[in-house]
Amino acid sequence: MSFWLLELPWWGYILLTLGLTHITIAAVTIFLHRYQAHRALELHPVVSHFFRFWLWMTTGIVTKQWAAIHRKHHARCETVEDPHSPQVLGLAKVLLEGAELYRLEADKQETMDKFGSGTPDDWLERHVYSKHSGVGIRLMLIINVLLFGPIGLTIWAVQMAWIPVNAAGIINGIGHYWGYRNFAADDASTNIVPWGILIGGEELHNNHHAYASSAKLSSRWYEFDIGWMYICIMRFFKLVHVKKIAPQVRFDWAKRKCDLDTLQAVITHRFDVMGKYGAMLKKAYKEEIHKLHATYRYHGHDASVLERLRHWLHLDAANLQDKEKLALANMLQHNARLQTIYELKQELARVWARSTATQEQLLKDLEAWCHRAEQSGIQALQDFSYRLRCYKMA
Fold it and tell me: With left for phi above 0 and alpha for psi between -120 and 50, is residue 80 left, alpha or beta?
């Protein structure tokens, strides 16, 4: 005779555990991330409180702490002040000790004061969820054991590990280290896979860093964001109000000259522009770097330094150390085409970096950039310039 209430076949426990942990993932991505941290949407009070209660029971996360740490991550991304950057701390540190890094940052009152505004501050938050953040997970343990017996301990252990492993480890670690990039965001963020299912859409991390306030994380036609699917279902039942999604890139292929609409579209979609620049010129980079290998060997130089050249070419000059800038300049002297490609990349980025310039001056700069690219004699640059002229606002 069993003393617990429910008994399932072995596969039933697996499906149940996956279902419970997936609700937790949905709560993190919809409530904590898109709603609380970035205000990309508004949730119905009933839905909002359900997510808050569920996270208290299954993670012990304090909303203010999570939102503040994530906002600081965006504000200080890939710097020594970033709470969990694998570029600074190393991938192993973030992947294996992500939860510890979170707790260290949560103890910093300065972070809470500066980045934690606008999060729940009602009676329940002050007297239950924040004050007794560990009570919920102990209640979850008791409930699991009463319902499922000894196997409930295993289900509870998986629930407790789910967010530290997937969010604190994989997203904060691999999501800034390995994957593909749609947008040349000002950090190392990547999309891990194009199908955001297991971690609620958070797998599309590069898309998120390009448009942080977007409620939708998918961008390309082949990408799927299951968190956005849930949001659309709730929106149908008027349980959520979407405030902002990333602007969609549009083109007018009949354009032959840059105008103010072109300028606005290029600035709005600057991460897409620079991402496409890198993708379109990838082949050109490869060919010219191959030529540099031959030149270096012929002149007796150390060709091993060229292994870092591809990485440097994709970075903004401001992100390079002085010795890297010097090494890059020395290498570019041996290849005029590569130097032109790199210089034009930096000049294009300066079009939207000149905050004090008038629209007319910026438009003139953009048109001059296109003219120089088309006169460069480099087919890849010419093709990119013609495409750049066709950007338009939706």
Answer: alpha
Instruction: Quick: pLDDT tens for 87-136.
Output: 889 989 998 898 899 999 999 999 999 999 999 999 999 999 999 999 99
Q: Which residues contact 195 (CB under 8 A, 6 or more apart)?
A: 203, 223, 224
Phi, psi at 188, each rounded to 5°: -100, 20
Crossing angle for the helix pair 135-148 and 151-163, nearest 10 degrees?
150
Instruction: Give the count of alpha carbons within 13 A of 302, CB side only.
Output: 7
End-to-end CA distance of the chain: 66
Q: Using CA atoms of 335, 337, 341, 344 in order, give the dihedral in degrees to the nearest 10.
A: 100
Domain map of the chain by residue range? 10-242, 260-392
- CB atoms inside a 10 Å sphere around CB 218: 25
- Write out pLDDT tens, residues 305-341: 666 766 677 666 766 778 877 877 877 787 788 888 8
Quickly count: other Cβ atoms within 10 Å of residue 26's Cβ.
18
- How many CB atoms are closer than 10 A to CB 176? 26
Q: How far is CA 38 from CA 197, 292, 354, in A?
A: 21, 45, 26
The radius of gyration of the chain from alpha carbons, rounded to an integer in Å, stands at 25
